[in-house]
Amino acid sequence: MTRAYSYACRDCEGMEACPASMTTQTKDELWQLMALHAKLAHDENAADWDQDTRDYLETLIKPVSV
Ligand SMILES: [Zn+2]
To answer: What InterPro entries would the database entry show (predicted)?
Structure first.
């Protein structure tokens, strides 16, 4: 089993209808995928995320074993 990090977009407030979820080995990689997904699916620029938004998203990242 490998430790990994998982993020499900529907856990985010206002994104309940989004089916996307992603799991990566490192948090760094997960943040990059979250940013890419935000851009592609929600036309949101991760560079505009303020610290509060990042803190909130951080609470949605779950450690998992795969
Ligand atoms: Zn989404």
So the answer is: DUF1059
CA distance 25 to 46: 21
- Report how far ligand 1's centroid is from the alpha carbon of 58 (Å): 15
Q: Identify the domain containing residue 21 by its residue range.
A: 3-65
- CA–CA separation, 3 vs 10, rounded Å? 22
Total of domains in the chain:
1
Q: Tens of pLDDT along 4-21?
A: 999 999 999 999 999 999
- If you search the block for the tokens 């979250």, which residue do you land on? 34
Measured in Å, residue 48 CA sits from the centre of ligand 1 at: 16
CA distances from 37 to 2, 3, 8, 19, 49 (A): 24, 22, 11, 11, 14
Quote the pTM value: 0.94
